[in-house]
Structures are given as C-alpha cells and as structure tokens.
Amino acid sequence: MSLSNATGDGVDGEFFPEINAVFNKILLPVGLESYPFLIGWYNELVGSHFALDYPPNTVAFVVLSGPDVFEKCVLPYLHSVLSQDPHREINDPLDDAMVHGFKLAQQDLSALNFETESIHDFQLYPSRKPKILVQTAAHVAGVVQYFHKSKLPLKIQEDLFAKESKLAGVALHPVYGGWFAIRGVFIFKNLELNQDDKRLVRPVPLNLIPEQERIVTLLKEFAYNWEEDKWRTIYSGTGSTKYSQDFQDFLATKPGERWEFLKSRGFLKTS
Ligand code: B12
After folding, report:
1. Is residue 175 part of a domain?
2. Are strands 32-38 and 58-65 parallel, antiparallel or unpaired?
3. How many angstroms separate the alpha carbon of residue 55 from the centre of ligand 1?
4. Does residue 199 belong to any structural domain of this protein?
5. What separation in Å is there between the alpha carbon of 195 and the centre of ligand 1?
6. Model pTM score
7. For 16-31, what is the mean pLDDT?
8. Residue 131 structural domain
C-alpha cells in the first residue's frame, strides 16, 4: 500500500519505506490499510481527557479494514486456528483476528527496532473510557472525514440530538463510503520527527458532504437507525465494494451468538 493519504496529497511515498514494507506484507493482504499521523495532531483535537501520553511529534499509524475484511482476514484466520486445533471456540472472531494481525506486524516492526504500542478500537480503561478515539485518528491522518453533531448549528443539535447528548459521530471514507471500520493504531514509541521534518505533512481535511441537510440525515441514520445500515450508503464513495451479505449477517448477529452463526453457515469447515 502506498503511504499516500486518501486525498493523494500530504504524505511522501518515501516516508519510512521499511514500515510501509511491514504493513504491506502483513496487513494489506488481509484487507487492513495503514496511514500515518502525528500524535500532536490527534491530541490537539481530542483534548486532555483523551490525549495520548506521547510527545507531539511521535509517529503513529491508524489501521482501517476495508469492505472485504471478513473474507480476506477473519475467515482465513479462523481456518488457520481450527486447522491447528479443531475444537477451539473463539468468543470474538473479528477482534481476535485483528489482535492476531496486529501482533504479527508488531513482531516484524520490533525486528527492525521499531518499538510500538498497539491500541485496538475495542480497548477501554476500567472506567469504560476508550483508549483511543479511532475516528479522530483516521480523520487527522486524512483518510476519512469525521462528522460530529457538535459541528451542526446549535438549534439542529438541540432538535435532533438533545435526548442523547453522548451520541458518537460517524466517519466516512472517500472510496468505501460507510463500508469500512477503523481497527486501531500503532504508536511508534521511539520514532519522533524533528520539528522541520517535512516528510509527513498534515493532510487537509476531506470535504465529502458539503450539504448540511445530508450531514444531518447521515448523523440521524447513524444515531437512531444504524441497524439498517443506510448510514453506510448516504455517501457512496468512489468504490463499488460493500460488505458481503455474509459479513452483514455476521455483524447483525449478537457477539455471543457469532460462533454458532459461523458454524451454521458452514464457514468453520477446514477441509
Ligand atoms: C463506545 C462505542 C460505542 C457504544 C456507544 C456509542 C455512542 N453512541 O456513544 C455502543 C456500544 C452503543 C456503540 C454502538 C455502535 N457503534 Co460504536 N464505538 C464505540 C467506540 C468504542 C468509542 C466511541 C466513544 O465513546 N467515543 C468517545 C466520544 C467522546 O468521542 P467523540 O464523540 O468522537 O468526541 C471526540 C471528538 O469529537 C474529538 N474532537 C473534538 N473536536 C473535534 C474536531 C474534529 C474535526 C475532529 C475530527 C474531532 C474532534 O474530541 C472529542 C473528545 O474530547 C468507537 C471505537 C473507538 N475506539 O473510537 C466505536 C465506533 C464509533 N462505533 C462504530 C459503529 C459502527 C457502531 C455501531 C453501528 C455498531 C456496529 N455495528 O458496530 C453502533 C452505532 C450506535 C450509535 N448510534 O452510535 C464505529 C463507527 C465507524 C464509523 N464509520 O465512524 C466505531 C468507530 C468502531 C470502529 N471500529 O470503526 N459504539
């Protein structure tokens, strides 16, 4: 995968080719894409409560899964686990597959002397505070646009979202529309750029939906009607791939019932 961000500007293709090579080898073939950003860009937006405790020029990468991650990553991972231990049951096949992929990448990075901390989207502190806000990370990396109700005029916020003040916003991707997820970040603990290093330039934020009315529809769909997945199609993106029906059915299944679902659909046969 090229290190160019989704808008095609901002990131030099020669930015740490050895990191690029690891992500290309381990993550990209399984449908996971990685994009660089600086911790300072992220901390500036999330504020002190969610700030990551690293110097602002520390390099990090955010990892996205594309529309075919179920077929490219989750199912092959399950088959490989089951071929070693046919009786194994995995509570959360999706998260487990991500943990596995991140670990492999981390091992290869460590062999190149890059010490990394990886944080997954689902990791929370005991207080239930998320360890990373992946939408903001992907937004500052320039790979998605993050829409948040707080950016709407106050009147609209009050009319539509007053009841549930904590509602999260939603991110869209220029190619995938809503058919993607943001899986986490790698923080390169010992990789700080100099102040005058221009290899990583802060991307200009995307502007995928200029019309306020459509943004309102998007936020409403995500907030109150997310099960129908219409929010994923309000901005269709330039790509033509969406989640397969199998993956949609998998996501619609309660986490505790997903293993049975996979079995009943015949996905867990290893030969
Ligand atoms: C907790 C959580 C939930 C909870 C609560 C959600 C809620 N509505 O509050 C539950 C379990 C209910 C849930 C449900 C769902 N979730 Co959820 N959830 C999360 C999680 C783990 C954390 C979100 C959160 O609490 N953020 C904290 C708040 C405070 O953050 P915030 O509102 O963004 O505020 C910060 C920013 O605005 C920033 N900021 C300030 N100014 C500015 C300015 C700019 C320009 C920017 C960019 C940022 C910024 O600072 C604020 C903090 O100070 C994220 C993953 C993650 N780790 O980020 C997924 C995530 C948001 N969920 C996701 C999804 C898809 C869903 C569901 C559709 C379920 C599903 N099938 O997976 C439903 C939708 C329900 C709904 N109506 O929201 C996706 C959204 C993907 C996307 N395209 O955006 C995420 C990102 C997970 C992922 N792996 O991709 N979720």
Report:
1. no
2. antiparallel
3. 25
4. yes
5. 31
6. 0.94
7. 95
8. 1-144+180-204+241-271
